[in-house]
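Session log. Operator J.P. requested a structure for one protein chain; no other inputs attached. Running the standard single-chain path with token output.
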Amino acid sequence: MKVMFSAGEASGDTHAASVAGALKKLYPEVTMLGMGGSLMAAAGVEIVYDIKQLGYIGIVEIVKALPSFFKLRTYLKEIMIREKPDVLVCVDYPGFNMKLAKVAHDLGIPVVYYIAPTIWAWHRSRGKDIAKTVTKVASIFPFEAEAYREFGVDVEFVGNPLVDIVKPTMSYEESTAYFNMPADTKRILLMPGSRKQEVLGLLDRMLAGAELVMQKHSNLAFYLPRAHTIDKEELDAIIVKYKVPVTITEDHTYDLMQSCDLCLAASGTATLETALMGLPTILLYRLSPVTFMLGKLLVNLTHVGLPNIVAGREVIPELLQGEVTPVNIAAQLNSLLDDSARRNTMIEDLRHVKEALGGAGAVERVAQLVASVAGESHKVSEDMNGKL
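Structure written below.
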């Protein structure tokens, strides 16, 4: 079995490497090649184009680089013609990979798309193109699978890879000891994001809200996991302005989640991680007014937070744009601190969100799906042997 991958970003390299590793474990004789990065190479993929060469580019640079993308697509087409892979696995990177999927389809090579275009959020028209060129979509959200089925796409919900990743490494007692947490405090996790602009825009409001809450609840401790994209000095410069006890942490974030009682989090993957950890969370979402208005026009969503989208209703409260004020943040925190019934209901709702994301083993299921499409799964092999 020969599998070709196409991943164009660091996150895609991570997901593709996981699938490659699972394929190698399930099918030791597999041959793998493709566009990717160092993680894929370490997983046994022969890198025919290193994504480091793509770089990080803005709108102007993208326009200038279009000829390079055309050349890259032509180069990968030549690789497919020469190597004749049994399947092409596209991972995220929709602007490029959707066009590459059409190239593969025209060459008669089946295509599996993992971390597929988010047609459930925007660009629904892409669903028609996916139906024409992609053999199988490996979907990571149940609602995403339903969105693709509306376009007649052959899609399988494989589960979410975060289910395998988001787990504590210590017991509750070990983690509270590791972070030196006093036993008589309520612990609040602060997750203002990983982009500098996002962090600087939200952390001030989080801490101003925390100051208001501490007027009513003095036994609070706050914990802030530092994203590697933010310098500690930048966080300290904001924290020092407020009378709030904040501990900056550097590692074991899932153990930290396990040890906390509540969380304030920027919209994004973090809210799905806290959901998987059963941590009651208040979502904060704040963009520039122009970006927000454009988003409202383009995005087909009634909720912003992934836990709410998965549940199809509001499970965690969302404070959006002008609602992200210290007073509103404090009101939500006080409500969850004072109302144990509300807090317990949220924990139960988050358990259902976790169940909806599927069981462990998503990556292995993707590997089996890839092998099946390539005609090399155990079931296909057994069927063929039975006919001989």
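Operator note: The two ends are 20 Å apart (CA to CA).
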